[in-house]
Design a protein that fits this description.
The chain is mainly beta and 196 residues long. It contains two helices and twelve strands, in the order H-E-E-E-E-E-E-H-E-E-E-E-E-E. It has helices at 3-20, 81-87; strands spanning 23-26, 32-39, 42-48, 51-56, 66-72, 76-77, 100-105, 118-122, 125-134, 137-150, 153-163, 183-194. The longest helix has 18 residues, at 3-20.
């Protein structure tokens, strides 16, 4: 094999691997990122109106995957202005000091994950390991999600459970008061379009 041909094949193989890991952009009109919490046993849904994402993902190229999501905490919307104001306050999100939350895929030191922290768990089902930072506090979490192709794009749907006290959401008397449930369900439903 000639040197020129070998170089051409190497370039093509690198290009193919890179091209397979698609960069995706959010369809904001049809996407939602938020959480479900409870007050006195009754659930209420909250969403964030503004968040930025860097998503690179292909089910056949998990080693190329990247999830990097930055959430504008001040854009919280629970369909109650009074509740939203309270959640942004010092005892809860303290949004004046911590206006952003961030999730970054990093992986866990476990053999079943590829280096970027993604693994497939079933047909169209995946998990991503990463680090979530809220109020300056960072913990490793696992986000199970479903991935499907829809309308010349893709859809990512995932849920995971957090303990609000792990991130000091609810301090003072609220730290031990169960009227605001300790478990919070994170809900992700993103409609994506390939980035050109």
């Amino acid at each position: 094999m000639s040197l020129q041909r070998a170089a051409t094949m190497l370039i093509c193989s690198v290009f193919s691997a890179t091209a397979a890991a698609t960069e995706w952009v959010i369809d904001n009109d049809h996407s939602r990122l938020g959480f479900v919490a409870t007050y006195d046993g009754v659930g209420f849904a909250t969403r964030f109106e503004r968040f930025d994402t860097r998503i690179r993902f292909d089910p056949q190229q998990l080693e190329e995957g990247v999830f990097d999501v930055v959430v504008d905490i001040t854009s919280i919307n629970s369909d109650s202005a009074d509740r939203d104001e309270g959640m942004l306050g010092l005892e809860w999100f303290n949004a004046k000091k911590f206006p952003q939350a961030r999730f970054v895929s990093t992986g866990f030191p476990q053999a079943r994950f590829v280096s970027t922290g993604f693994r497939q768990t079933g047909a169209g089902a995946f998990e991503v390991a990463g680090r979530l930072t809220i109020k300056g506090i960072t913990h490793s979490i696992l986000l199970p999600f479903a991935w499907s192709g829809v309308d010349n794009g893709a859809r990512l749907k995932g849920k995971t459970i957090l303990q609000r006290t792990d991130y000091k959401i609810g301090i003072g008397e609220w730290e031990s008061d169960p009227i605001i449930g300790f478990e919070v369900e994170i809900v992700v439903d993103l409609h994506l379009k390939g980035k050109h």
